[in-house]
Amino acid sequence: MTDTGSRWRAVTGHRLFWPVAVLVVMLAANTIYRPGFLSVEVNDGHLYGTPIDILRLSAPLILVALGMTVVISTGGIDLSVGSVCAISGALACSYISQQPDQNSLAVVFTALALGFGIALVLGAWNGVLVAVIGIQPIIATLILMVAGRGLAQLITEGQIITINSEPYRAIGLGHVLTLPLAVFIALAAALLVAAFTRRTALGMIIESVGGNSVASRLAGIRSGRVVFLAYVLSAACAAVAGFMITANVSSADGNAAGLWIELDAILAVVIGGTALAGGRFYLSGTILGALIIQTLTTSVYAMNISPQTSLLFKAVVVIAVCLIQAPAFRARLTRRRRGTPTNPTSPPSQARQKEEVPA
Amino acid sequence: MTESRPVLTMTGISKSFPGVRALQHVDFRLFPGEVHALMGENGAGKSTLIKVLTGVYDTDEGTVTLAGETVSFAGPMQATAAGVSTVYQEVNLCTNLSVAENIFIGREPRRLGAVRWGEVRRRARELLARLELDLDVSAPLGSYSLAVQQMVAIARAIDVRARVLILDEPTSSLDAGEVAQLFRIMRQLRDEGIAILFVTHFLDQVYAVADRITVLRNGQLVGEYPSADLPQLTLVEKMIGKELEVLEDIEEQPRREIATLEEGTPLVGVSKLGRSGAVEPFSLTIHAGEVVGLAGLLGSGRTEVARLLFGADRPDRGEVAVDGRPSGLRTPAQAIGHGIGFCSENRRAEGIVADLSVRENMILAMQAARGWLRPIPRRRQDELVERYVKALQIRPADPEVPVRNLSGGNQQKVLLARWLITEPRLLILDEPTRGIDIGAKTEIQKLVAQLSDGGMAVLFISAELEEVLRLSHKVAVMRDRRMVAQLANDDSLDADRVMQTIASGSPREEAKR
Lengths: 359, 513
Prior knowledge:
Chain B: Keywords: ATP-binding, Cell membrane, Membrane, Nucleotide-binding, Repeat, Translocase, Transport. By secondary structure, chain A is mostly helical.
């Protein structure tokens, strides 16, 4: 086998290969359909264009998905992130709306601190239910998913709170160095979560707990603390996403803010290669997954697919993405394409490729 | 044994995994009506060969023929349908389902899509009667002992008119009586013309039941021999590829006097520690540098003692003192804080974290003790891991391979390394040599002797009395969840005396021996 052949295998074997390939195909399809899709123009010192929009709009999903990745890695799941988005956004907006000077930086920072603080409390609530009381994560977080919407309505008193605060609006729509501020916030959050998990031993310990909780306990890991921390982290990420979502429209809607974002986030995590059963997690994969989902949403609008059927379209694409990533499915496809399994060329080439791996 | 045509031949089988060449041009054949033992150390390729045969893995090279036809199974289901059934070491059945459901799950007799439960139960009863087992087929499988579960797994395997029955370490969790029962069934099936492939680590069992032996070493075929022509010692030499001297080394070491060992404050003093339903209150002292053996039958409470001592289970009475001071020990993390380590007998479920690499598995306990905020610097990790990979001869020697790719014996060594890295003062080893080959076994025994010379205390739990006697300074005997005796391991102590203690007052157990 040639050297390029083995290199090609090394590339396709990389776990980020398929998510990247899907993203590229999606962008290419859009460009063919609408040649101006990838064009970016400078206007007023800021960059504008569909790619920039995709980056900006995917920022909240990236945030939520980062937290979700860590929770899923422990073997859990957090269904309450959408509600946490709504509650944090609602609290921040309702505080700002009651202040005389909505443009004051101090007011906005206080509002953010309030929203962030309540998210930490909510995350701790989830953490206690799962790690201390021992309720199954899907049930434990379902409580807050449902009750949280009520809590958000309570904060907004059933109204849609509209605010008029430039600094707050900037979280969603502001620009820094020609790019949307939201992109930088998402990037910073990603780096922070990566540092938090990979610069410390937290990541490995989480993966260990998610991979085999019994063995981890016997190795001396206090898994309760780790799991608790994961839910707090997830809620904190959701809070920031909630600020962005409400800042985008300068209003807080307890019902609509962050609705179904938990499902998109779970999808992003799975597309990124983290197993729902827990264990190894991949933050870079998750970010790619979130970008894929946002690109898909944007494509649905760009291709004028009717909103009634857009969810169906999205579902079909997501199933395809998940299937193409599954090694078992790909193996079946290639086997069928090669014809009979006793094809003389295939087994020796496989064998030689394996032998190249240093023993 | 019938010298007819082989029912199964495997020719030139090769299989590689990333970083591991598991099989290289291995030939194997199996005749109808014989029990054929597949022998080899851990990592020799026994499991891989079986998995290639049953279609769990694809082969890289080589052919498999069944009754003269070339076959290539896409998975165990296809293999079973073609008459090649496997019973694995760990019983892969659902303990929450009934015995009958377990036997027929996946191929229930149906009429118009509905399962015919009456038929299921009737046929299950027939099958079990053939194996001379009298069970309530409607009772949940979990209500029976592990041995009976194993028999049910065999019943499931032979139902599909099996021509080849593969038994992968079926005896590793059975006691002597149960093994005899299993062998009776194996001979019966052999006489019915079924070809049985038998994998075990117990040499005596091979000679008790096998007609022919195939030996593998390092993924290569050493040879195929009629068992009558292969003395036990030669077999061992062929398996490990060198002559056996290691064991004698340990025996020849002057054994330090227990009286001098037991001077001063014990490292760990257990007083009246117990947990209802698990083990009656027991007291035990362990001194630095002392190896305490724990003997007893399966289910006699050996593991429960270890788990209480380590805080894996919460004791409901009694106290553990460390260095003479009450420790208030209640969790594994606290135990580790006191310098206690525990290697569970259940490697897969309670030991390794399969997804993580060899390196991560090794440093896990040390990292847990430091807390997540103080990661072990990567260079230090690499140093530690390299040292123990070398010292314990872990293969493959690549620390970044996921630990699940390692053979059972090497996984056991990784777990040992995990605890040795924490430099424990007391290491609890629960069946550290079970299900691993003779080479790794002697290495681990040697290691235990070395560690105790270096001042580490070891609580050594094993079903093999010879092993316990060879290593221990003191033997505690468990019987029916009670610690019935503590015997100093001096010249007067031998396997017979320990066995008598285990059996004392129980004529049933005595009869079995």
